Amino acid sequence: MLITTSFDPDDILSRKAAAAAAHFGPDARFAPRGRMTLAQLRERYGDEDILLFAKGRVEFHRGAQPPLFFHPSMSLIRVKRLRSGEEDPLVRLAGIRPGDRIIDCTAGLGSDAIVFAYAAGEQGSITALESAAVPCYLLQQGLAAYESDVPGLEAAMRRIEVLCCDHLSYLQALEAGSADVIYFDPMFRKPIRESSSIRAIRGLADDRALSEQAIAAARRAARRAVILKEHRDSGEFARLGFAEIHRSSSKIAYGVIRC
């Protein structure tokens, strides 16, 4: 993977890019941008993947796919709705309360984790797990730097602890009853093709099906609920023991196991 910057970077941006190259280790290298296009960088260095540091955000580019970068996405709208007194379906199903400890086992770019952090408040504890290196890095950088004029949104982002790790190993190491809610939003077994955000991350994120061992570990560690988000027609709910199903939209549903 190449690490580079936008045109005419300042010293801060250049240092961030160099630090990212060190973070990713021998599989990454810093490539000074000069006046080269991304296509020219790929041709010169023979690497398809590029992590680009621009003012205000970090982007991952792979071929003709849309760039992947952190943005609060729908969490921005959902937090605004919560602030206006509206109900969030996921927050309601999970029974999120101020001060809850919540573990998002497949965080991706953190949209649901942000809503959890806002709903759980200043005393809440949100851990976002992401096993794929690039999405995890984008999430860490984005949560730390994103600026918003929505009251409480930035503070919620900063409260999220992001860990780059496998969720099964993490859950198995937890003590019984050590979290209130444990949440899974894996890559759907039946993809929703029209989602541009999912197209951008597919191929980078861990696309393995959830294991029965992971659900068993989550049930042991959760005090109140284990939640699974999937395609409404997915067979994963039945396979993994989710008998309580709530449809959220025409294509998405949530499975709930009460603990």
Overall description:
By secondary structure, the protein is an alpha/beta fold. The protein has 2 domains: about 55 residues; about 180 residues, Vaccinia Virus protein VP39 (Rossmann fold, 3-Layer(aba) Sandwich). It has 11 helices and 12 strands. The protein has a 7-stranded mixed beta sheet. A 5-stranded mixed beta sheet has the order 2-1-3-4-5, with helices on both faces. Strand 11 and strand 12 form a beta hairpin. Helix 3 runs parallel beside helix 5. The protein is globular, with a radius of gyration of 19 Å. The model has no long low-confidence stretch (mean pLDDT about 90).
Relevant terms:
259 residues; alpha/beta; Rossmann fold; seven-stranded mixed sheet; five-stranded mixed sheet; globular
Briefly summarize what is shown.
The chain is an alpha/beta fold.
> What is the number of independent domains?
2
Global structural class: alpha/beta
CATH architecture designation of the largest domain = 3-Layer(aba) Sandwich
Biggest β-sheet: count, sense, barrel?
7 strands, mixed
Q: What do we call the CATH homologous superfamily of the largest domain?
A: Vaccinia Virus protein VP39
Relative helix content: 25-40%
| Proportion of residues in extended strands | 15-25%
| Secondary-structure element series | EHEHEEEHHEHEHHEHEHHEHEE
CATH class of the largest domain: Alpha Beta
Question: What form results from the Cα inertia axes?
Answer: globular
Mean pLDDT: 92
* CATH fold node name of the largest domain: Rossmann fold
Please state the CA-atom Rg, rounded to the nearest Å.
Answer: 19 Å
